[in-house]
Amino acid sequence: LACYKPGQTSRLIYRPRVQSHLKGAHRGFTWKDYRDLVVRAHLQLGGPIVLIWDNLNVHRSAGMRQYAADHDWLTVIQLPSYAPQLNPVEGIWSLLRRSCTANVLFRDRDQLEHAIRRGLRRIQQHPDVINGCLRGTRLSPLPA
Fold it and tell me: I want to staple 63 with a disulfide (CB 3.0 to 4.6 A). Which of 3, 28, 31, 46 is the partner?
């Protein structure tokens, strides 16, 4: 999550998940994983959250919609279908692809995970980079 709160430094809150190779195991984040990430952001930011999300099916799931409806500190706004230019997290992924994972042949999943975590930490330490991703959407109140 690329987070902006007036008067505070922009933040990147993330929770990588390594997919299981077990047959029948869920391969991506479930709505509960996203819920836990939103709760973590709520606790870290200490206030209400306006969550602007793309139209990933898990984001629009019944469980996630019900969770948002049950919590007055959470407002969810759905982006239009296929609008990556409005999603600051797309900028974060682009930075990761061009930096820590570009032109690298990873020997195993652990090395890939380590590189991604290192790249995310590096972005976390540079709020100006997060601000650039937020500004790029033109949805943020950050000055140009």
Answer: 31
> Which of 143, 144, 142, 140 has its CA nearest to residue 52?
140
Among candidates 140, 125, 116, 128, which has minimal Cα distance to 15?
116
Query: What gap in Å lies between CA 47 and CA 18, rounded to an integer?
Result: 29
Give me the pLDDT at residue 32, please: 92
Tokens at residue 38, please?
């939103």
Average pLDDT over residues 104-108: 91
Angle at 46 between CA 39 and CA 95, to 5 degrees: 65
Q: Does residue 56 register a pLDDT over 70?
A: yes
Q: pTM (2 decimals)?
A: 0.79
CATH class of 2-136: alpha beta
Domain spans of the chain?
A: 2-136
- DSSP helix/strand/coil, 88: helix
